[in-house]
Amino acid sequence: MNQKMELTHNQPAAPAVELPHELSDEVSSKTLPERSQTLGALARRLLRCRDTSELLSEGAAGFGTMAGALRCVIGVIESPEVGRAPRTHEWRADGSAPGAPATSPLFDLAVSTRSPQWSQDLIARAGGAPERGHSDAAGGGTLALPLLGSKGPLGAMTLHGERLSEWRPEVVELLRDAAGDLAAALERSLDHQAAVRSAAELRAVDRERNDLISIMSHELRAPMTVVAGIADLFERRMDRLAPETRAELIDILGRESRRLARLATQVLDVEAIDRGRIDLRLRTVDLSALARESVADAGLADRCEVVEASGARAEARVDADRLKQVLLNFLSNAAKFSPDAARITVSVDASVREISTRVTDRGLGIAPEDIPRLFHMFSRLDRGDGVEGSGIGLYASKAIVERHGGTIWVDSQPGRGSTFGFTLPR
Q1: Do 172 and 300 belong together in one domain?
Q2: Residue 112 is part of a domain; what is its CATH number?
Q3: How many domains, in total, are found in the chain?
Q4: Same structural domain, 29 and 130
Q5: CATH number of the domain that 398 lies in?
Q6: Do residues 187 and 297 share a domain?
Q7: Weakest-pLDDT range from 78-87, 113-122, 126-135, 342-351
Q8: Is residue 131 in a domain?
Q9: Does residue 332 lie in a domain region?
Q10: Containing domain of residue 383, as a range?
Q11: Which of 324, 366, 361 is nearest to 344 (CA)?
């Protein structure tokens, strides 16, 4: 008997499974002990398999052949979400036509009841054809066997036959035991793959932590050097500095101190995002006024204008401190990646249902292929001018805006500047 392997539900094509010689014999020539021995050998091979796709492919072919089925489908429930289709692997005997869907009410019933289910029984319960028999009368039959793991159902195996006489009670019992062996092998494989994923995730987290330490060390060094230098200058030469020089240095101190505070806040935000907890203190805020405060705090009043694009009041219930962080990050990036004298525009547009705030610069712009990476953790774009950011400001900004139920976006053209904005519901 020749076999072929097919996968459903968009699974990648698996290599053809080379069945051992005893599985390629005609099913009718097998005695029950021989079938039991062959299934035992198959179960032992499956227990050694760590690749779930390979395990399901060989299992579907082996069990389908041993049962004399036309089709064997193994469905694995990978997500407990309602309505989420299971991952399925299908084997069909050579020349057999596609049958019923890989998953069906029979599959669901076997999983929910944790017991074997026959299509004939399902039809009989609905008032249809008589219950199954063991005559030689022609007719299709489907048996669904649950795959039970130590923590609950993993899925089910459905066997589709051509004649009811194929499903003798002793063979069904043998297949039921074999389904238990398949479930044990499947659970072991899934646990192995979960452990591999967990190890990879832990390594990724460790890399992110190391990246954060490296980036923040670099980012903190510059403002701390400026602050330390000015403090040293004041200590040694305060009385010899001209009043206008002292005023300029004090202004620089304030600007760099605010920069340090923003960096510290970003680190705390990343920690809060990782824990899934960004707490908001909501109150009614005029976003136009908040934009003007942010411009002043960023020290950009001389090159930045705030435009109210509509006559409606731009009020919403928000966390003012959190949104100011977003605006300060937008403004900082606009100033950093624009020529020194280039104008920056902040516009606030309010409608009945939403408020949009955007910061537009006339700087270098961003290449289209780089835009999808902007809001990722530690994404630092190389714009060819040697200027880099921390790689966490936009990541934190996105989380803050989405925590408010809003959306964050960017529109940019290389050489013509960028617009970063967010839209919030009222």
Answers
A1: no
A2: 3.30.450.40
A3: 2
A4: yes
A5: 3.30.565.10
A6: no
A7: 126-135
A8: yes
A9: yes
A10: 283-425
A11: 361
Residue ending a domain, choose from 165, 197, 229: 197
pLDDT digits (tens, 9 = 90+) for 55-86: 888 888 888 887 778 888 888 886 555 445 67
pLDDT at residue 384 tops 90:
no
The pLDDT, as a whole number, for residue 425 is 93
Measured in residues, the chain has a length of: 426
Q: 387 and 337 in contact (C-beta within 8 Å)?
A: yes
